Amino acid sequence: MAFDLKSARHWAEELLRQAVGEGARVIDGTMGNGHDTLWLAELVGGTGRVYAFDIQREAVERTRARLEEAGLSQRAVLFHAGHERIGELVPEPVDAAVFNLGWLPGADKALRTQADTTLAAANAALDKLKEGGLLTICAYPGHEEGRVERDMLLEWARNLPHARYDAMIRAYLNQPNDPPVMFAVKKNLRGKRL
Ligand SMILES: C[S@@+](CC[C@H](N)C(=O)[O-])C[C@H]1O[C@@H](n2cnc3c(N)ncnc32)[C@H](O)[C@@H]1O
Question: What is the CATH number of domain 8-187?
Answer without folding.
Answer: 3.40.50.150
